[in-house]
Amino acid sequence: MSLSTHVLDAAKGLPAAGVAVRLDRREPDGTWTAVAEARTDADGRVREWGAEPGTGVHRLTFDTAGLSDFYPEVTVAFTVDDPGRHYHVPLLLSPFAYSTYRGS
Q1: CA spacing 20 to 30 A to 43: which of 4, 13, 55, 90?
Q2: Pairing mode, if any, of strands 86-94 and 2-9?
Q3: Side by side, which strands form the sheet with 56-63?
Q4: What mean pLDDT do residues 57-77 have?
Q5: Start-to-end Cα distance in the chain
């Protein structure tokens, strides 16, 4: 399975570089285990995690302090059901709103 993310600062219309992102996996008992951490590159992307997340429920937690005074962090949970596919989870952030979707 491969996973990527992209953070866009919608208020500026630019990629958000240097954003800390943590990838966690939910264990069968409901607890979360950290899988990897990364920072977005100059294009606002994380392409490599250095870890294989595997199937199951995962979450990305974005440290958005400084990009939004209202949302100091944003967490997006998602399910990986096909380890042979690529998963892309972008975050579009503005000062008082955010959105995400399943990208390609």
Answers
A1: 55
A2: parallel
A3: 32-39, 20-26, 56-63, 73-80
A4: 96
A5: 13
Binding-site residue ranges:
6, 45, 101
pTM summary value = 0.95
Picking from 47, 5, 55, 48, the residue whose alpha carbon sits closest to that of residue 25 is 55
Average pLDDT over residues 46-63: 92
Q: In the chain, what are the domains?
A: 2-100 (2.60.40.180)
Q: What is the structure's pLDDT at 31?
A: 98
Cα separations in angstroms, 20 against 2, 62, 64, 104: 19, 6, 8, 22
| Mean model confidence pLDDT for the chain | 95
- pLDDT value at residue 1: 72
Residue 51 DSSP class? S
